[in-house]
Amino acid sequence: AQSVTQLGSHVSVSEGALVLLRCNYSSSVPPYLFWYVQYPNQGLQLLLKYTSAATLVKGINGFEAEFKKSETSFHLTKPSAHMRDAAEYFCAVSVDNQGGKLIFGQGTELSVKP
Amino acid sequence: DSGVTQTPKHLITATGQRVTLRCSPRSGDLSVYWYQQSLDQGLQFLIQYYNGEERAKGNILERFSAQQFPDLHSELNLSSLELGDSALYFCASSVAVGGINEQFFGPGTRLTVL
């Protein structure tokens, strides 16, 4: 079975500061990993995904994530936070032998202070 | 705009009632997923259809059912509603099954059970 743990339900940073959102996964087979963002009253939008091609994945809006198999981690980073980055972020895992359903972490709400 | 549409946006109903949520996938996508987002349980996978056939099931209650029609739109039926069914219900679509495929999410239907 697969699972995802996001450390920290709420993260607050100042504008211009580094953003680091943590995600650890558990999977008995090679996983695909995703980060989604949810703005208030909206659906989820894909930020980036890991599909085994490269361990460092670049996404939209300046975000990137690094897949570390030894640490079973897929942390999301952005060098400099903007006010518009304030949202809820979800890490998710899927595998081929289960149809591609996404298993989500509990989410991390990012606040950005001016 | 993800290209996935969901209707209605909001639904308010009473306990014991039955409702139907509708989803139209992106043009060309054959796979449809339903997810439930609640404060208690977070984002949970309910059920997946591919080209009209059920492909995967999550922790979907027996009171809930879904189907995908020949035109590929999908409906999620919730019956004997309870207060705890109040949640945001998302539909997502992807071009095929398999964990590697990106899922595109609709804006969701917010269900309130009074």
Description:
The complex is a heterodimer of chains A (114) and B (114). Chain A is mostly beta strands and 114 residues long. Helix content of chain A is 0%, strand content 54%. Chain A is built from no helices and eleven strands. Chain A has strands spanning 3-7, 10-14, 19-26, 32-38, 44-50, 56-58, 64-68, 73-78, 87-94, 103-104, 108-113. By secondary structure, chain B is mainly beta. In chain B, a hairpin with a 2-residue loop joins strand 5 and strand 6 (53-57). Chains A and B meet through strand 4, strand 5 and strand 10 of A and strand 4, strand 5, strand 9 and strand 10 of B.
Topology (elements, then pairings):
The complex is a heterodimer of chains A (114) and B (114).
Chain A: E1 3-7, E2 10-14, E3 19-26, E4 32-38, E5 44-50, E6 56-58, E7 64-68, E8 73-78, E9 87-94, E10 103-104, E11 108-113
Parallel strand pairs in A: 2-11
Antiparallel strand pairs in A: 1-3, 3-8, 4-5, 4-9, 6-7, 7-8, 9-10, 9-11
Chain B: E1 5-7, E2 10-13, E3 19-24, E4 31-38, E5 42-50, E6 53-57, E7 64-68, E8 74-78, E9 87-94, E10 104-105, E11 109-113
Parallel strand pairs in B: 2-11
Antiparallel strand pairs in B: 1-3, 3-8, 4-5, 4-9, 5-6, 7-8, 9-10, 9-11
